[in-house]
């Protein structure tokens, strides 16, 4: 059991450490990050319950609606809602890169608990594939979500509502595409590989932009907007 928990938790910790250590300008309060991770972990239970009920009651007659759209929508919506209601106005959310970290934290909290349940059901031998696909994709969806929330809060030259909407719609679109590829055909792996490469490229581009905005915000505190 200890081995299973270690294997299930390790990918999430590794991915979060990767994004956390990229920020060399300041240290984000670890208590708030841990709380955000816990929020994501707690979210796993109501989301899995709703998914189970909707599937058992056959609310959606077509499996694509259930497995692709409903799953993606409910997972990303609740993560977005918690970030917006609990963390967006938190005093410790005080720079653009914080959004990236909070988005990654809440997504990895969810992905880690989900991963534990999955490995308990299907065995440790699935751990590697789970790490490089579901766990990492959740982290990257969270990064994209957090990036746009950071822009909503700190990019005063643009509409906050626009970026708050993008914080939900961008990761939701990516999640739906991921789900669609996963169940689409027998040789899904040949489509998933380029998609995951794109997802990493797209997310790391957002990470770089958020970090540059943080640097500029620190250097030029009196400027109207850190974004260019």
TrEMBL record:
The UniProt record lists the keyword Protease: yes
Keywords assigned: Cell membrane, Hydrolase, Membrane, Metalloprotease, Protease, Transmembrane, Transmembrane helix
Top-tier EC class: hydrolase
Gene Ontology MF term list: metallopeptidase activity
Membrane topology: Multi-pass membrane protein
GO cellular component: plasma membrane
GO BP annotations listed: proteolysis
InterPro entries: Peptidase_PrsW_arch/bac, PrsW
Protein location: Cell membrane
Enzyme Commission number: 3.4.-.-
Keyword rRNA processing: no
Entry's family note: Belongs to the protease PrsW family.
NCBIfam families reported for this sequence: intramemb_PrsW
Function: Involved in the degradation of specific anti-sigma factors.
Protein name: Protease PrsW
Species the sequence originates in: Kurthia sibirica
């Amino acid at each position: 059991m200890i081995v299973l928990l270690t294997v299930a938790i390790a990918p999430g910790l590794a991915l979060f450490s990767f994004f956390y250590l990229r920020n060399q300008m300041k240290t984000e309060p670890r208590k708030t990050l841990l709380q955000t991770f816990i929020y994501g972990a707690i979210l796993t239970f109501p989301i899995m319950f709703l998914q189970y009920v909707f599937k058992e009651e056959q609310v959606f007659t077509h499996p694509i609606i259930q497995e692709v759209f409903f799953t993606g929508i409910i997972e990303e919506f609740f993560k977005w809602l918690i970030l917006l209601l609990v963390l967006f106005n938190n005093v410790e959310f005080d720079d653009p890169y914080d959004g990236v970290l909070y988005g990654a934290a809440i997504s990895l909290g969810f992905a880690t608990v989900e991963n534990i349940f999955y490995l308990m059901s299907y065995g440790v031998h699935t751990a590697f594939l789970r790490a490089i696909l579901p766990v990492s994709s959740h982290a990257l969806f969270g990064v994209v979500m957090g990036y746009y929330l950071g822009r909503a809060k700190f990019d005063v030259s643009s509409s906050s509502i626009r970026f708050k909407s993008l914080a939900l719609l961008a990761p939701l679109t990516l999640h739906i595409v991921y789900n669609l590829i996963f169940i689409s055909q027998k040789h899904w792996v040949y489509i998933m590989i380029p998609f995951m490469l794109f997802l990493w490229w797209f997310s790391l581009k957002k990470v770089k932009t958020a970090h540059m905005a943080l640097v500029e915000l620190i250097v030029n505190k009196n400027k109207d907007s850190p974004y260019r």
